[in-house]
Amino acid sequence: MTPAGGFPRAPIGRADRPTLAVVGATGAAGTVLLGLLSERADVWGEIRLVASERSAGRKLAVRGEEVEVLALGEEVFDGVDVAMFDVPAEVAARWAPVAAARGAVVVDNSGAFRTDPDVPLVVPEVNAHAARNRPRGIVAGPGCATLTMIVALGALHAEWALEELVVSTYQAVSESGRRGVEALRGQLAAVAGAELGVHPGDVRRAVGDTGPYAAPIALNVVPFSGTPAEDGWTTEELAVREETRRVLGLPGLRATATCVRVPVVTTHSVSVHARFESEVSVGKAHEILANAPGVVVCDDPVAGEFPTPADAVGTDPVWAGRVRRSPDDPRALELFVCGDNLRKGAALNMAQIGELVAAERAED
To answer: Residue 237 has what DSSP assignment?
Structure first.
């Protein structure tokens, strides 16, 4: 039976649980989120799936049930307790305040609110407490490059106090959405079987249109992610810096990033140079990381064991390995981290924040 508001009632046994809206349910991370909602502890009552007008009426599976997709509009937030947004920043900027004004706590995965001082930037394994202080009714998550490293980095910071950070990211094309994946697959098909990559420009000529990237992504890496910013940096590189500062509560942290696009479909990697206030050791770092929630240690290079995107893809934790103490600095560690950019880099972090808010409601 459908009540007067036009939405189905929560299933029997879930009527006293919070109502969730998933905005952007048909996107790449939205699809992963629906899978996670089916796999994780079921804390939700009704789940509403919301997308653009062109996707309205589709039916998607969540928790083993077919749920019809609703068109984004003010009324879909009536009675919603938590709204998870995985949409472009301009859409989130318009609609997240609408959802919050109607009483929902918004969990936003876009970049629309990540620098807003009235919106906490939250990674539950690192700063779960911050989610409770939300003056605008919105909680944001960092970008997927930051999320790839921040869980491991946060655990090390808690022990030794981070002082300086230099990272290089190796980012998968799925961050660019369907266009990125199609560009990589199309370019791989164009170069397959050909003796390319041995002369200047031969790969570029073979692939023709480079899609969303300034250079070919097949048989290549592209040292540019985001859009141009001041002094030669990119928006993505500056975001990694600022997001890390906010999540760790270190506004003066010396931090730089170089962001690189690589020919990987899904799963980001980050090479990390971290300098701490205290002297470090590889053995203690292994112990810290092995005990950190959401981290898997994979570090036996002699046996060929270290994190790679091909192994980490489709898994929830971040994988850490190649842990070394800097040969010239007893307070600095080098490590390599991989994380699925659609799971912990997006959908899983949203799900975890939503569960924090649901637990708050249960306390009331």
So the answer is: H
Per the DSSP assignment, residues forming a β-bridge with 48 are 21
Q: Yes or no: say if 212 and 256 are a contact pair by the CB < 8 Å rule.
A: no
Residue linked to tokens 């990589």? 184
Give the tens place of pLDDT for each residue, 98-157. 999 999 999 999 999 999 999 999 999 999 999 999 999 999 999 999 999 999 999 999
**Does this model's pTM top 0.90?**
yes
Shared-domain flag, residues 227 and 246: yes
Q: Which of 129, 157, 259, 268 is the catalytic position?
A: 268
pLDDT cut 70: percent of the chain above it = 96
Q: Three-class SS of residue 48? A: strand
* Residues whose CB is less than 8 angstroms from the CB of residue 117 and which lie 6 or more positions away in sequence, other chains included: none
| Residue 11, pLDDT score | 56
**Among the listed residues 87, 83, 73, 75, the one whose alpha carbon sits nearest the alpha carbon of residue 104:** 83
Distances (CA, A) of 232 to 223, 229, 236, 238, 259: 12, 6, 12, 11, 12
Per the annotation, the verdict on 129 as an active-site residue is no
Indicate the SS3 state at residue 23: strand
Find the catalytic residue in 144, 259, 298, 338. Answer: 144
Residue 52: give the domain boundaries: 20-142+346-363
Q: SS3 sequence, 171-197?
A: ECHHHHCHHHHHHHHHHHHHHCCCCCC
**Tokens 């880099």 appear where?**
345
CA–CA separation, 43 vs 359, rounded Å? 8
Q: Is 268 a catalytic residue?
A: yes
How far is it, in rounded angstroms, from Cα 267 to Cα 341?
5
The answer to whether residues 51 and 72 touch, using CB atoms and an 8 Å cutoff, is yes
Q: Are residues 95 and 204 in the same domain?
A: no
For 41-55, what is each residue's pLDDT tens digit? Answer: 999 999 999 999 999
- Convert the pLDDT of each residue in 332-352 to its tens digit: 999 999 999 999 999 999 999
306 in the same domain as 207: yes
Task: Look at the chain and report how many structural domains it folds into.
Answer: 2
